[in-house]
C-alpha cells in the first residue's frame, strides 16, 4: 500500500490516504481536493493554501499533469495556491516526514501483510496525542500522463514562479484565472 499525507501543523491535524495504486499526480490532487472539500467549512475565510512539499517525481514544479491539476483545483475553489518545495536532502524540515517516522515506530516491525493491518496501525497511531483521519482509496490511477508542450503553455499561464527561487516556489492564483 502506498501512503500520502496532509498535515496542518498548527492544529496537529493529520490526514492519511492509502492506495494500492501508484501515487500519481492525479492521486495527490484528488486527495487534496477530497481533503479541502471536507475542511473548507472549518476555514471559511481562507483563500490561500501554502503547501510545503518535497520534490518527489509526482509533484515536481515542472510536472505537467500535476501543474494542470493544481491549476484546475485553484480555479475550481478560487484559491491562491502557493507551492513551496524543500530542496533535496532537506526532508527533515518537512513536518509530514516526521509523521511517517511516528507511523513506522508505531507498527514497530509488525507484519503488514494486508490492507487492514496497515490501516489499523495508521488509525491507532498518534500525532501529538491525536489520531489521524485515515482513508483507503480504491480508485486505480494511471501513470505516465503528460501534457504536450502546447497544452503546458496554457497551464503555465496560470503559474507564477518566484524570480529568485524558480522551481522551488510558485503561485497559482485561482482567484484570477479564467479557464476554458
Question: Could you please describe the fold and organization of this structure?
Answer:
This protein has 180 residues and is an alpha/beta fold. 33% of the residues lie in helices and 22% in strands. It has 5 helices and 7 strands. The protein has helices spanning 25-39, 64-77, 95-107, 115-124, 149-156, and strands spanning 2-8, 13-19, 48-53, 80-85, 133-137, 159-161, 169-173. It has a 4-stranded mixed beta sheet, with helices on one face. The chain has a 3-stranded mixed beta sheet with strand order 1-2-5, with helices on both faces. A hairpin with a 4-residue loop joins strand 1 (2-8) and strand 2. The radius of gyration is 17 Å and the shape is globular. The protein starts with a strand and ends in a 7-residue tail after the last strand.
Number of strands: 7
Alpha-beta content class: alpha/beta
Question: Helix amount, in percent?
Answer: 25-40%
Number of helices: 5
Computed over alpha carbons, the radius of gyration is 17 Å
Taking the sheet with the most strands, its summary is: 4 strands, mixed
Shape verdict: globular
Amino acid at each position: 500500500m502506498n501512503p500520502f499525507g496532509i498535515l496542518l501543523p498548527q492544529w496537529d491535524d493529520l490526514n492519511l490516504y492509502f492506495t494500492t495504486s501508484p501515487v500519481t499526480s492525479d492521486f495527490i490532487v484528488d486527495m487534496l481536493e477530497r481533503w479541502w472539500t471536507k475542511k473548507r467549512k472549518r476555514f471559511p475565510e481562507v483563500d490561500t493554501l501554502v503547501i510545503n512539499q518535497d520534490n518527489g517525481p509526482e509533484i515536481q514544479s515542472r510536472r505537467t499533469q500535476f501543474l494542470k491539476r493544481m491549476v484546475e483545483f485553484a480555479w475550481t475553489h478560487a484559491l491562491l495556491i502557493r507551492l513551496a518545495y524543500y530542496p533535496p536532502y532537506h526532508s527533515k524540515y518537512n513536518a509530514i516526514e516526521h509523521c511517517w517516522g511516528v507511523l513506522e515506530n508505531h507498527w514497530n516491525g509488525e507484519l503488514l501483510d494486508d490492507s487492514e493491518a496497515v490501516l489499523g496501525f495508521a488509525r491507532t497511531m498518534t500525532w501529538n496525542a491525536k489520531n489521524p483521519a485515515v482513508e483507503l482509496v480504491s480508485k486505480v490511477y494511471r501513470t505516465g500522463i503528460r501534457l504536450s508542450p502546447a497544452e503546458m503553455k496554457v497551464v503555465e499561464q496560470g503559474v507564477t514562479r518566484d524570480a529568485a527561487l524558480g522551481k522551488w516556489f510558485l503561485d497559482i492564483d485561482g482567484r484570477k484565472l479564467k479557464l476554458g
